[in-house]
Design a protein that fits this description.
Strand order of the largest sheet: 1-2-3-4
CATH class of the largest domain: Mainly Beta
Distance between the termini: 28 Å
Helix content: 40-55%
Radius of gyration: 26 Å
CATH topology of the largest domain: PH-domain like
Structural class: alpha+beta
Largest sheet: 4 strands, antiparallel
């Protein structure tokens, strides 16, 4: 491929979509809520038969609070982050659970990928020209390490001098 080829400028070297992990699928959530509701209903009836009928309301509030907590958790799971590296830019696009987004562009030539927190890999920091941006907040520590290594590998590919990939021409004597 010719170095002046315009398609080379847009060549994607790294492209990732990061979403929060949710271990309980909608079907599992339904089953869990049915189980909690069933246990609360049976216990509420037992208390009502024993004469403590106001307790039924508290069981209902418990079920409602568990449902609300899960709904809020699922709503926050709609957040998403895109990281794309081309020869000229690193683009980070973030969208929160409401769909509000921001886009960050960084020049990749001087870009450094850092893992904060040594073994715990608390966050991935991208540093270039005095700017620091974090990515992959949703990821587990092991996934952060894998993501950082993959991005570093893509940056290494980018930083390799183009003339090293091409065959060498004979020097005139």
């Amino acid at each position: 491929m010719d170095e002046t080829d315009p398609t080379r400028e847009d060549e994607v070297l790294f492209d990732a979509v990061i979403t929060p992990h949710r271990s309980l699928r909608p079907h599992g959530f339904l089953m869990l809520m049915l189980a909690i509701g069933g246990v609360s209903f049976v216990c509420g009836i037992a208390f009502a038969v024993a004469g403590a009928w106001p307790v039924i309301g508290f069981f209902g509030i418990d079920v409602a609070l568990v449902w609300l907590a899960f709904r809020l958790n699922y709503r926050s799971g709609r957040a998403i982050e895109y990281v794309k590296l081309t020869r000229n830019t690193l683009i980070i696009r973030r969208f929160d659970h409401r769909g509000n987004g921001i886009e960050i562009e960084m020049q990749p030539y001087w870009l450094k990928v850092e893992l904060a927190g040594d073994e715990s890999a608390e966050e991935i920091r991208l540093r270039s020209h005095g700017e620091i941006h974090t990515v992959g907040a949703f990821l587990s520590p092991a996934e952060r390490v894998a993501f950082a290594n993959a991005l570093r590998e893509a940056l290494d590919t980018l930083h390799r001098a183009p003339h090293l990939d091409a065959p060498t021409a004979a020097m005139p004597a």
